[in-house]
Recover the amino acids of this structure.
């Protein structure tokens, strides 16, 4: 299952818990999205936040192999990690940055979002000092179209454009925005409004700048729902990992994708201990569960520090030998307890699957999200970064 003929046991011998990332599926998701999308639109998967928990370097490589044109990150540090891993494709960094990191962004040759006065000031200063590679930095103005997160009004964006044009050394490359509400509604009026504001701003800025600019606003939901209206760049995140931005989006689009999206992440742990508990005994902190029968418990070395949310207390399930085992009692910081009374022959060292497939069953990020009262995005992104991610290819 793993590269170089290593078995799971070879790979994970020293790990209490680990993730397996099916890189072939990530590649295939890219191909499916590429096929779905207007051929003129650049495909730019987001590999921020450790590739939505999937491991940034292996995911980035898989996406590029599957046909990604660009990569998107949140931080300049993530972009640096990609460059250090030998990745030379265009990288768009869309998160907030520190002014003192702008020189590094230029040295890395990034596409960088711009919406802060302090950053424009610093860029002008760096250009006046003829800072190394400053002309390699490609700036994308972020327009406030209605998400009220980051962004400039059209007037502010035009002022920024005038300053950049006068400067003559700084390169404006794009105009971007971000949707507030595409995935969760059948009424696309607000998204349409945001789209028209972006297009209007893009045209005004382009005509002032005097050269074509890349215009982009599409996330996964917009790319899936409006494949022919994704403008110049599709910044797909969650869908690249085989997860749907929402149930509604899945219902509307799933049968239009060929092949369909496939999840790629499994999270496993080795049972640390197996023990018998009599009927009527409380389990864990707060004594929130009292055994209703003689119970066989497996101790799983994963808790909320590792990213297994405390809201899964008495609610979550894991797979052991292809069967479901219920979480009993509260999830602790580094441990949780599950009921294996009905799963014969379990012993310490056996593998528990917290997320992903085991046998014919699968615990999905959506299912975990329902139990934890959150979204699939949060489930995968919060699996702790220190847990090893092993690329697998079957
Ligand atoms: C600016 C920006 N673009 C694109 C994305 C990708 O969104 P999604 O994962 O919904 O495709 C994100 C994710 O948060 C984002 O912040």
């Amino acid at each position: 299952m793993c590269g170089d003929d290593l078995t799971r046991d070879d790979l994970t011998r020293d790990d209490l818990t680990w993730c397996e990332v099916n890189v072939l599926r990530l590649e295939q998701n890219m191909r499916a999205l590429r096929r779905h999308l207007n051929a003129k639109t650049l495909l730019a998967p987001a590999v921020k936040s450790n590739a939505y928990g999937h491991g940034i370097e292996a995911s980035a490589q898989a996406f590029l192999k599957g046909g990604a044109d660009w990569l998107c990150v949140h931080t300049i540090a993530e972009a640096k990690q990609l460059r250090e891993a030998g990745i030379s494709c265009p990288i768009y960094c869309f998160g907030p940055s520190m002014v003192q990191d702008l020189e590094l962004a230029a040295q890395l040759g990034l596409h960088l979002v711009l919406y802060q006065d302090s950053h424009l000031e610093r860029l002008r200063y760096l250009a006046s000092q003829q800072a190394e590679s400053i002309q390699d930095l490609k700036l994308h103005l972020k327009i406030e179209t209605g998400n009220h997160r980051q962004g400039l009004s059209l007037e502010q964006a035009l002022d920024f454009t005038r300053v950049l044009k006068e400067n003559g050394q700084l390169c404006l490359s794009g105009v971007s925005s971000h949707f507030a509400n595409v995935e969760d509604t059948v009424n696309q009026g607000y998204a349409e409004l945001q789209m028209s504001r972006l297009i209007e701003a893009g045209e005004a800025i382009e005509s002032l700048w005097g050269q074509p600019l890349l215009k982009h606003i599409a996330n996964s939901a917009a790319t899936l729902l409006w494949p022919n209206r994704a403008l110049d760049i599709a910044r797909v995140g969650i869908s690249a990992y085989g997860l749907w931005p929402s149930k509604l989006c899945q219902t509307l689009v799933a049968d239009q994708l060929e092949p369909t999206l496939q999840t790629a992440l499994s999270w496993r742990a080795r049972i640390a201990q197996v023990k018998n508990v009599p009927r009527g005994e409380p389990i864990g902190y707060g004594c929130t569960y009292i055994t209703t029968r003689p119970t066989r418990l497996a101790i799983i070395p994963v808790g909320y520090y590792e990213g297994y949310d405390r809201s899964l207390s008495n609610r979550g399930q894991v797979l052991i030998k292809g069967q479901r085992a219920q979480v009993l009692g509260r999830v602790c910081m580094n441990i949780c307890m599950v009921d294996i009374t009905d799963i014969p022959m379990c012993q310490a060292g056996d593998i528990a699957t917290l997320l992903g497939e085991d046998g014919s069953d699968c615990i999905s990020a959506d299912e975990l999200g329902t139990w934890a009262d959150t979204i699939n995005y949060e489930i995968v992104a919060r699996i702790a970064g220190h847990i090893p991610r092993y690329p697998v290819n079957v």
Remarks:
- The chain has two domains: 23-256, 265-392.
- The pocket of pyridoxal-5'-phosphate is lined by residues 46, 94, 178, 219-220, 235-239, 245 (CB under 6 Å).
- The longest helix spans residues 189-209.
- The longest strand covers residues 351-358.
